[in-house]
Amino acid sequence: MYLDKDICKEGNPILKMKCQEVKLPLKDEDVKCLEQLYEYLIISENEEMTKRYNIRPGVGIAAPQVGVAKRMFAMNCTDFLDEKQTKYSYALINPQIVGYSEQMTYLPDGEGCLSVTRTTEGYVVPRHYVIKFKALAYDFITKKAKYITKILEGYPAIVFQHEYDHLDGILFVDKMVHKDETKAIPLYTVEKEDEEK
Ligand SMILES: [Zn+2]
Hints:
Blueprint: H1 28-44, H2 47-53, E1 60-62, E2 72-78, E3 87-100, E4 104-106, E5 123-124, E6 127-128, E7 130-139, E8 144-153, H3 155-167, H4 172-175, E9 177-178, E10 185-186, H5 192-196
Parallel strand pairs: 4-10
Antiparallel strand pairs: 1-2, 2-3, 3-7, 4-6, 5-9, 7-8
Bound molecules: zinc ion.
Zinc ion (ZN) binds at residues 113-115, 162, 166.
């Protein structure tokens, strides 16, 4: 499994690279890498495990973050704004964004990244509110990959765009702007009691 020491941090040149398409048919080493990326996210959901292995929780991780400059990433997030708390778990190969809304949004508390250790308080990243993607999705149970096309909206769309940017050598800190400088609409309103804290 990947540990914090395996994750490339800001300043590492691999995080600035445009990653290569994954060649098909899939090689075992690529599947193994993707599986370990996905595993990291699943393990990091468990607080006890994050303490035991001293890892940071994450909802997405891309291959370049573990030193592999290939177009693959895993995401595992719950849409906390959705009544049904829908989960979005994907292990994706050669993803493409094939459509997006003009409407922009951002996480009012800003984004975080396993590769960025500094604080970026007050800074946010404008993202498309809706995206449509195509990708080869790997299923670790059936051990098969198949092409999928999905529309994501809100939080999972933001997570996807953050991870997708990693494949083009872009970190969220390269795109962030001060909260007061964006016309995008916050994804949710920060509650008053939070502001008073
Ligand atoms: Zn990141």
